[in-house]
Amino acid sequence: LRQQGLNEIANSDDLKNVNDIRVKLLGKKGPITNVLRGMRDLSAEERPKVGKFANEVRDELQQALEDKKSSLEQALMNAKLQSESIDVTLPGTPVAQGQPHVIQQIIDQLVDLFIGMGYEVAVGDEVEQEEYNFEKLNLPKDHPARDMQDTFYITPSVLMRTQTSPMQARMMETHDFSKGPLKMISPGKVYRRDTDDATHSHQFHQVEGLVVGEHVTMADLKGTLEVVAQNLFGDQLKVRLRPSYFPFTEPSVEADVTCFNCLGKGCAICKGNGWIEVLGAGMVHPNVLKMSGVDPDVYGGFAFGLGPDRFAMIKYGVEDIRDFYQNDMRFLTQFDQKG
Ligand code: PHE
């Protein structure tokens, strides 16, 4: 039986055949199983001898089957490798590569600029407590300026932040002023209950800036805004400050930059008197400092809030803010930075 089995295995030449032989020799109805099953009829002396021998035969056949199987598989693989070939010089299939959204590009550029000037970047939450969005920014309940920022409320005291300014309060509260001034920017999304049109969107972006320390002046603010404007729009730009009003800054200003040639074709947005308004800013109001635990007799600072959406519109002459949010690839790919 052993010799016959080994011969059969040696002569078989495909995997199915090897499997058939395995079933025939070693299967439940095969001769080996039969011998092992018959053991109980044998005498006590015979039993170990027969058992040992049957096991040896079984192991040997099993090993032969395994070897045959792997050598057949190896042969199959070799044949396959021989018949197939890959031309590694053929051009590949192009993979479409994504790009940061144009607004994200502006935010990234600003973040890089400010990190270079030693600012920290603080990302706040879009769901904010009313207390931080308003009260701690010197806007008590029923303050008329709350109307300027029509708000999505989640509960009576929790809302979608209408501005990134709450991060001013949060950062001042946690900053250790004995270690030096606080310099931070905070980019992110903000929400207002506006009806969407060419210049309004219920969701848009802001980058908040805040510097609080011992000798911070309005000249520092103007110089910083000049760096921002020149970095984004061109080094020839001038910045001017006009008086304005925000509850959390005193004095408050609006910053304009001189007109520049957007997209080399003259900027549609830049009509009129040669200046474009770009952002709101001011010196941090003493009440705001106090509410965040900062002594206004020792420390002072400036803050600004700018809108990357507006910056992108100005920079590229985009006339409808909704274009940024409709995900039309023909629009978005115009701002690709490839190549
Ligand atoms: N938070 C203000 C706004 O959304 C902008 C601003 C920020 C003004 C910081 C002054 C200082 O309109």
From TrEMBL:
UniProt key word Nucleotide-binding: yes
Reactions the enzyme catalyzes: tRNA(Phe) + L-phenylalanine + ATP = L-phenylalanyl-tRNA(Phe) + AMP + diphosphate + H(+)
Note on cofactor: Binds 2 magnesium ions per tetramer.
Location(s) in or outside the cell: Cytoplasm
Pfam families xrefs: Phe_tRNA-synt_N, tRNA-synt_2d
Primary localization class, coarse: cytoplasm
Domain Aminoacyl-transfer RNA synthetases class-II family profile positions: 130-334
Gene Ontology molecular function: any one: catalytic activity, acting on a protein
Enzyme Commission code(s) on record: 6.1.1.20
GO CC terms: cytoplasm
Gene3D superfamilies: Bira Bifunctional Protein, Domain 2
Broadest EC class assigned to this enzyme: ligase
InterPro entries: aa-tRNA-synth_II (IPR006195), aa-tRNA-synth_II/BPL/LPL (IPR045864), Phe-tRNA-synth_IIc_asu (IPR004529), Phe-tRNA_ligase_II_N (IPR004188), Phe_tRNA_ligase_alpha1_bac (IPR022911), Phenylalanyl-tRNA_Synthase (IPR002319), tRNA-bd_arm (IPR010978)
GO biological process: phenylalanyl-tRNA aminoacylation
Origin superkingdom: Bacteria
Obligatory cofactor(s): Mg(2+)
UniProt-listed NCBIfam families: pheS
Subunit text: Tetramer of two alpha and two beta subunits.
Similarity field: Belongs to the class-II aminoacyl-tRNA synthetase family. Phe-tRNA synthetase alpha subunit type 1 subfamily.
Name of this protein: Phenylalanine--tRNA ligase alpha subunit
Organism: Limosilactobacillus allomucosae
Lineage, broadest ranks: Bacteria, Bacillati, Bacillota, Bacilli, Lactobacillales
Encoding gene, per UniProt annotation: pheS
